[in-house]
């Protein structure tokens, strides 16, 4: 039995994502004894810093979320001792070979596995994988590379990025992260459906009227305008996070829970969908607004955003899957920044009960009597099912009540951050929650014609006030498909 070392190199160590998510997730894994006995963490970035300074920097964002005892503080110190820093350019073979020497010093005499997290803009991914020779970085173990979106801006640029990466990496080495797949409730989607008899038989066009995937944030693009303006909400949230959830939701039963079986089914869903057209979407952009003596900026007030920007900060879309299970069922997506609330949820609206005996108790609005299953991904994770119920009493009055599984009431355990699960999966070589290249191609093929058209025809987004419920156009879009947004009713 050969002892192994795991080294985790965070490239772009001084960036926001690294500080806020990656280092804290690594610490949480360490705290939970999920990391191997021999491991080291390296930060790599251009800024000049000592290892001590890196430790100082990351210690500020590590949290003892699991327990707040002194034990956690000790663990934190032990973790920080395993963290090192190397400063270098992203396109310098020399600097990466210095890093390689440092890694080797820690790896002596052992099987060495290396994980690189490229927490840097995608336009420098290729420089890094080339200069760091990541294809065969570790002589006697595996080398895996985690990359995070944006993977291009459209089919063409994404294809180009994939081709370039594959010059220097094998597909099995590439772990394309979509952090929404690491969220507890998203993982639970398959459990709910495939292990409960009361759901799977209903999971089709015969019983489901529409599915809604909703993402909203109650803050704008503050500080990220430079990045955001080049992408917009469709590329930032819909083409990846919401579409991935949709694929998981709608896939056929996979042969097994193996990564390839699941991803085979997901890609089939994506390829069964009709590419979006202009009439399938509504786009919006937030404008400034004053409320309670406080004023909120417009998107274009961001100094890094051009005054005439048409970039959508909100979009609603109707998608359809052309297969036997889902033919005609609208999958509605809605994503926006600077809305009235922060929330992500999946809502499944069921059909009316045929010949409902209690029809008259609902007046003319039968929609009020349909069952709705809601998975609240965040915040305050919950799964609830809206059912009709008799209000206790002598009369026959009905109301809609919830069968409610509220996580914080049911489970005492903290819900891990998505990055914890995904990092652990990458370390264990579990690819189920990572995006395969054919999924990425299919996802871009769905959205690229629309994105081109929006840009070529300079479609002006509908303005909505910061902190509002978004453009009215979203209601018309839903109404066109006989749908009402569940989060607003
Ligand atoms: C990122 C987007 O992928 O997801 C951000 O680029 C967005 O714009 C973020 O704010 C939302 O993630 P979470 O986990 O905070 O819901």
UniProtKB/TrEMBL annotation:
<keyword id="KW-0521">NADP</keyword>
<dbReference type="GO" id="GO:0009051">
    <property type="term" value="P:pentose-phosphate shunt, oxidative branch"/>
</dbReference>
<dbReference type="GO" id="GO:0006006">
    <property type="term" value="P:glucose metabolic process"/>
</dbReference>
<protein>
    <recommendedName>
        <fullName>Glucose-6-phosphate 1-dehydrogenase</fullName>
        <ecNumber>1.1.1.49</ecNumber>
    </recommendedName>
</protein>
<keyword id="KW-0313">Glucose metabolism</keyword>
<feature type="domain" description="Glucose-6-phosphate dehydrogenase NAD-binding">
    <location>
        <begin position="10"/>
        <end position="188"/>
    </location>
</feature>
<comment type="pathway">
    <text>Carbohydrate degradation; pentose phosphate pathway; D-ribulose 5-phosphate from D-glucose 6-phosphate (oxidative stage): step 1/3.</text>
</comment>
<dbReference type="GO" id="GO:0009570">
    <property type="term" value="C:chloroplast stroma"/>
</dbReference>
<feature type="domain" description="Glucose-6-phosphate dehydrogenase C-terminal">
    <location>
        <begin position="191"/>
        <end position="485"/>
    </location>
</feature>
<keyword id="KW-0119">Carbohydrate metabolism</keyword>
<dbReference type="GO" id="GO:0050661">
    <property type="term" value="F:NADP binding"/>
</dbReference>
<comment type="similarity">
    <text>Belongs to the glucose-6-phosphate dehydrogenase family.</text>
</comment>
<comment type="function">
    <text>Catalyzes the rate-limiting step of the oxidative pentose-phosphate pathway, which represents a route for the dissimilation of carbohydrates besides glycolysis.</text>
</comment>
<dbReference type="GO" id="GO:0004345">
    <property type="term" value="F:glucose-6-phosphate dehydrogenase activity"/>
</dbReference>
<keyword id="KW-0560">Oxidoreductase</keyword>
């Amino acid at each position: 039995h050969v002892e192994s070392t795991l080294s985790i190199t965070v490239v772009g160590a001084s960036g926001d994502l690294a500080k806020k998510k990656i280092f804290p997730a690594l610490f949480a894994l360490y705290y939970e004894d999920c990391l191997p006995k021999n491991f080291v963490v390296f930060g790599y970035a251009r800024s000049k810093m000592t290892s001590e300074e890196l430790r100082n920097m990351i210690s500020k964002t590590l949290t003892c979320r699991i327990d707040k005892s002194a034990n956690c503080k000790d663990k934190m110190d032990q973790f920080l001792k395993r963290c090192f820093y190397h400063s270098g350019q992203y396109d310098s073979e020399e600097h990466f070979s210095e890093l390689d020497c440092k890694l080797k010093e820690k790896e002596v005499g052992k099987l060495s596995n290396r994980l690189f997290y490229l927490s840097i803009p995608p336009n420098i991914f290729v420089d890094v994988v080339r200069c760091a020779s990541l294809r065969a970085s570790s002589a006697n173990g595996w080398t895996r590379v985690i990359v995070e979106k944006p993977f291009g801006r459209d089919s063409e640029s994404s294809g180009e990025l994939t081709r370039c990466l594959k010059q220097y990496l094998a597909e099995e080495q590439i772990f394309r992260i979509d952090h929404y797949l690491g969220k507890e409730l998203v993982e639970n989607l398959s459990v709910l459906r495939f292990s409960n008899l009361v759901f799977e038989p209903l999971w089709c066009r015969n019983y489901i009227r529409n599915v809604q995937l909703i993402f909203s944030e109650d803050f704008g693009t503050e500080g990220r305008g430079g990045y955001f303006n080049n992408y917009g909400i469709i590329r930032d949230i819909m083409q990846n996070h919401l579409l991935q959830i949709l694929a998981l939701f709608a896939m056929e039963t996979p042969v097994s829970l193996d990564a390839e079986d699941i991803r085979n089914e997901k890609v089939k869903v994506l390829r069964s969908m009709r590419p979006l057209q202009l009439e399938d979407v509504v786009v919006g952009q937030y404008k400034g607004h004053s409320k309670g003596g406080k004023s909120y900026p417009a998107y274009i007030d961001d100094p890094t955003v051009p005054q005439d920007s048409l970039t959508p900060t909100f979009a609603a879309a109707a998608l359809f899957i052309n297969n036997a299970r889902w033919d005609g069922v609208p999958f509605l997506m809605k994503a926006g920044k600077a809305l009235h609330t922060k929330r992500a949820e999946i809502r499944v609206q069921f059909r009316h009960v045929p010949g409902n005996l209690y029809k008259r108790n609902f007046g003319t609005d039968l929609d009020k009597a349909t069952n709705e299953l809601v998975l609240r991904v965040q915040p305050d994770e919950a799964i609830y099912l809206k059912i009709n119920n008799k209000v206790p009493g002598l009369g026959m009055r009905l109301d809609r009540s919830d069968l409610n599984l509220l996580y914080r009431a049911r489970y005492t355990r903290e819900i891990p951050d998505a990055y914890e699960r995904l990092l652990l999966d990458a370390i264990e070589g579990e690819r189920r929650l990572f995006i395969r290249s054919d999924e990425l191609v299919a996802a871009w093929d769905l959205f690229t014609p629309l994105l081109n058209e929006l840009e070529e025809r300079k479609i002006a987004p509908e303005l909505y006030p910061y902190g509002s419920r978004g453009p009215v156009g979203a209601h018309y879009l839903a109404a066109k498909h006989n749908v009402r947004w569940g989060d607003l009713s």
